[in-house]
Amino acid sequence: MKVRLGAVSFLNTRPLVAALEGKEGPFALSFAVPSVCAEELRDGRVDLGLIPAIEYARHPNAYCIAPGVALACRGEVLSVRLFCQKEIGKLRRVALDQSSRASAALLRLLLREQYQLDPEFVEAPPDLDAMLSQADAALLIGDPVFRQRHRPSLDLGQEWLELTGLPFVFAFWAGRPEALPPHLVAALVRAKEEGLRRIPQFAQEHASQHGGEAAFYERYLEHHIRFELGEAELAGLCEYYRLAQAHGLIEEVPALRFFPAS
């Protein structure tokens, strides 16, 4: 029986999942945006999901985390940005990309902590012009940001680093405690390590399929996205949960529970 794996359909996950694809492996992959991955895991449609970090805290006793693998950043992330039509101090209404969970919570924290703002938030499909037609600013995440990267915007990864001095963890593999035996934890780590060696290939493929420059995508994957879940990333994750609890976005700071690794 294969482990059903719910993966994210953005470029930044290719180094984590490409080596897991194929009929002969132990995983059966499906792809969706981060918010849907969280829903599929919650509803039991997948056994393990690459879920937004905030969703783990909302189900603190339900899941374990696969150690050593994450989607994170330390500073400018490029693909999580707030596009503003007004000076940030004058924002009254903000449209949130409905694909997002961790980034939406991060934006709420940053606006309160950095700018003393608590605007109205509305969810919307990831169409920037449509979002800005109904709000003063719009949060966009993932691949759709690439087409808009030359427009003025606020990079949430950089804002988090300036606030805390720590990396930010957007997502990690998580599932119910019985979902992942130790040898498959190791398989996820090996897949990441192989994926990191194939970044130039993924960048070229993405440029061929979606346009843009392969050199930009390669730089994005090599220098702006971090795929580790090490001590610094865990410290950033704990600070995120601490602030989220302080601002009422989660009920409690969750204990970090991990699948045992071989």
Low-confidence stretches: none
| Rg value | 18 Å
Number of strands: 11
Summarize the amount of helix as a percent range: 25-40%
CATH homologous superfamily caption of the largest domain: Periplasmic binding protein-like II
Strand coverage percent: 15-25%
The tally of helices reads 10
Distance between the termini: 20 Å
Q: Could you tell me the CATH topology label of the largest domain.
A: D-Maltodextrin-Binding Protein, domain 2
Could you give a short account of the major beta sheet?
Answer: 6 strands, mixed
Q: Structural class of the secondary structure composition?
A: alpha/beta
**In sequence order, what are the helices and strands, one letter per element?**
EHEHEHEEEEHEHEEHEHHHH
From the coordinates shown, what is the CATH architecture of the largest domain?
3-Layer(aba) Sandwich
Q: CATH top level of the largest domain? A: Alpha Beta
Kindly report the average pLDDT value: 95
- The tally of domains stands at 2
Q: Which helices and strands appear, and what pairs or packs with what?
A:
Blueprint: E1 3-8, H1 14-17, E2 27-32, H2 34-42, E3 48-52, H3 53-58, E4 64-65, E5 71-73, E6 80-84, E7 93-97, H4 102-115, E8 120-124, H5 128-132, E9 137-141, E10 154-155, H6 156-164, E11 168-175, H7 182-197, H8 199-210, H9 214-224, H10 231-246
Parallel strand pairs: 1-2, 1-3, 7-8, 7-9
Antiparallel strand pairs: 3-11, 4-11, 5-11, 6-9, 6-10
Helix pairs in contact: 4-6, 8-9
